[in-house]
Amino acid sequence: MKDTRSVWQISGGPLDRNYADIFLKYSVALIGPGDAGPWNPERDDKEFEGGFVRRFADEVQKDDVCLLRTGLSTIRAVGLVASEYLYLPQFDDVNGWDLQHARRVLWRELPHSYSFETSIFGANPPRLSKVGNFEVLDYAANVNDLCSIYWDSQAFGDHPTEDELVAHYVVPFLRRLGWSVEQVAVKWKHIDVCVFKKLPRSPENCHFIIEAKRLGAGVEGALEQAKGYLEMLGISRDVVVTDGIRYRMYSSQNGFTPIAYANLARLKQSALELFSYIKTP
After folding, report:
1. Does 7-133 carry CATH code 2.40.160?
2. Cis peptide before 200, with omega less than 30 degrees from 0?
3. How many other CB atoms are there within 10 angstroms of residue 84's CB atom?
4. What is the pTM of this model?
5. Tens of pLDDT along 209-220?
6. Taking a C-beta distance cutoff of 8 angstroms, is the pair 31, 99 a contact?
């Protein structure tokens, strides 16, 4: 089933009067101006200096995803909206701001603040706005949801096999990155996944190969096995090793040195490099 949750970015305040710590400490998202009193549908946007309070109170839904933004394009935490709209008078003075309009949010602070290279929220980002869902990030969110289940042996049972990971993770991941079904071969010439730049499916048309291991296995050890398959085919191609969650790419032109890495359950900016290598030319 497609995830229908919206993704919102909400400001944690300007750098010189930041209140992101309050969001995290009290598990809330706050927005102002709040001194005008509680929002209700009968009240005019002009009473709240525009439509941001209305959107926060009326359009944001429980279980929507919230990005806690600091500065122009830096994310401090990711959270799930956990309540309906609230008016909390105790937040009438947060570093001088009146931020009584509230939502309870289950925040998950990032190990390090995540800065986008471009101003994805705009040159002058608003205090609240809906963020477009990118397909790869949507896929990664699904990975994150399932990853914790897979690791719970009592709830799930045995870890999924390599073939399961290829079917449920690797092939959908490649499809999201633009590869058509006929370009993705599974168990071709004993290779877990072979991606072809064009048909027919022949060694010379192989673009790169993927060797899969069980979840949590040391995927780096799969490189030698993959190189053996390439030797049998008489070709030299880039290799990706994966456990379905973690992906590491090795360059055949540079002695199979690692050139890109991504953990889909813990996305970082560097993952974009791997996506650029793997997506369709």
Report:
1. no
2. yes
3. 11
4. 0.52
5. 999 988 766 667
6. yes
Phi, psi of 102 (to 5 degrees): -140, 160
Mind giving me the DSSP string for 12-59? ---GGG--HHHHHHHTEEEES--TT----TTS-GGGGTSSHHHIIIII
Element (H, E) at 176: helix 171-176
DSSP string, 91-152: GS-BTTB---EEEEEEEEEEEEEEE-SS-TT-SS--SEEEEPPPHHHHHHHHHHHHHHHHH-
Total number of residues shown for the chain: 281
Ramachandran angles phi, psi of 34, nearest 5°:
-110, -10
Location of each CATH 3.10.590 domain in the chain: 7-133
User: DSSP state, 208?
Assistant: E
Q: Are 258 and 252 in contact (CB under 8 A)?
A: no
In angstroms, the CA 63 to CA 67 distance is 13
Classify domain 155-278 at the CATH class level.
alpha beta
- Residue type for 81, please? V
- Residue 134's CB: how many other CB atoms inside 10 A? 12
3-state secondary structure of 2: coil
**pLDDT lower than 70: segments of the chain:** 1-4, 111-112, 116-120, 132-159, 216-219
